[in-house]
Amino acid sequence: MSDASTTPTTPATGEGRLWGGRFAAGPDQAAWALGVSTHFEGRLWPYDLAGSAAHADELRRLDLLTADDHAAITRALTRIRGEFEDGSFAFLPDDEDIHGAIERRLIALAGEAGGRLRAGRSRNDQIVNDLRMYLADAIAAITTDVRAVQTVLADQAELTLDALAPGYTHVQRAQPVTLAHHLLAHAWGLDRDAGRLLDCRRRLLDSSPLASGAMAGLTLPLDPQRYADALGYTGTAPNTMDAVADRDFAVEFLSAAAMLGVHLSRLCEDVVLWASVEFGWARVGDAFSTGSSIMPQKRNPDVAELVRGKTGRLVGDLVGLLVVLKGLPMTYNRDLQEDKELVFDAVDTLALSLPAVTGMIASLTFDTERIAGTAAGGFALATDVAEALVVAGVPFRSAHERVGALVAECERQGIDITDLAPEAFAAAMPELAGETTADLLDPAGAVRRRNAPHGPAPDAVAGQLAALRDRLAAVPRT
Length: 478
Ligand code: ARG
Hints:
- It is a single chain.
- This protein has helices at about 30-35, 40, 45-60, 65-85, 100-110, 125-160, 180-205, 225-230, 240-245, 250-275, 300-325, 340-360, 370-375, 380-390, 395-415, 420-430, 435-440, 445-450, 460-475, and strands at about 165-170, 170-180, 280-285, 365.
- The radius of gyration is 31 Å and the shape is elongated.
- The strands form 2 sheets. A two-stranded antiparallel sheet has the order 1-2. Strands 3-4 form a two-stranded antiparallel sheet.
- The longest helix has about 35 residues, at about 125-160.
- It is mainly alpha-helical.
- Arginine (ARG) binds next to helix 6.
């Protein structure tokens, strides 16, 4: 145990610490180091200041501040805003958190009036307000970045509407598709991610926590709706205890962020496969590739790998917060301070990753000839033959058996089904006598036949692409 825990080394009340009157000594150094949060809360300043300005207005309305005090506070808050903006605001060692630091500076600038602003509020409702407002802005920025990834996927799809490609299940060639269809599959997942983020944003703005105080509201007649109106919320918290205790809005954000990360990771995994010599589907642009320190020939898709790796952080942030919250009794507990670094990590991770993914996808050049060349092989049209038998009246169960047997026979002969002599094919599938094998086994024809609106046929994908472009153009402005 350090000496500091028994010997007061700091005064009981500090300027940037908002408590101390009932203590004989200041905090132990290790205890202080554990609790201080200024090194990560700095980014909350715009929201903390906005909340303070709204609070000053409310205290003035209730005549709990004189016009002079209100003016002095407002002037000081504007000055502090300028200091944060130009980077001159300095956190001091005695500042416990962003609220304490701002109050310390407010008093330095506005004198005694600054000490009046704490009436009618608690750090418990302030910090929830700060985090909600911060997340509303962060989500707007992230959603814009997600739209950019979708846009470059749509641009690449536009170029590859007619490009045949094998579609895979189990990383085994399954059925031919168009490359555009494959690319848009990624874009639609991202569309739902953007939707989830915006849902979360709408809900977190539903509930202004201010005027909840520490947890039971105030005896002062503060009007929660006025805070909501001043700060851009659409509603107010229904319960003061819920307002300060819950962080479900942060979990919702982290959950949407983790799902987004998983989608980005799957897209990146495809890029890694495509860029391999074995696949040889795509080349990642120079600006988004890296070399090896030992192997001069290497051209590594590091951006895709890094983003795939970052997903671990996003999932970890979500799980981390769920574990912090589980088992917390009502209402505020200091454990809740752990929410912010997790949320900030997810925001920062996405702010780094999304633009890199956008650039990487835009930089891809596809070898469409090579890709198309692999669309037909590997018995990719076996299902089409079985479905042709179904149209001719054969139950699918026996069609499947018979085509399977033909595939096995081809394998024995070491040939593809497309290499079968037309007579041999006709002999095995007499019901299909009217159909030419060339037509039935042509991958381009096979893709064209899959022309339902959600299918891979070029015309259908053109419609799908137009629908996606419409959605991107109609993105609700936040
Ligand atoms: N830094 C604290 C947090 O993030 C602010 C609220 C402190 N409240 C308290 N009762 N100590 O949660």
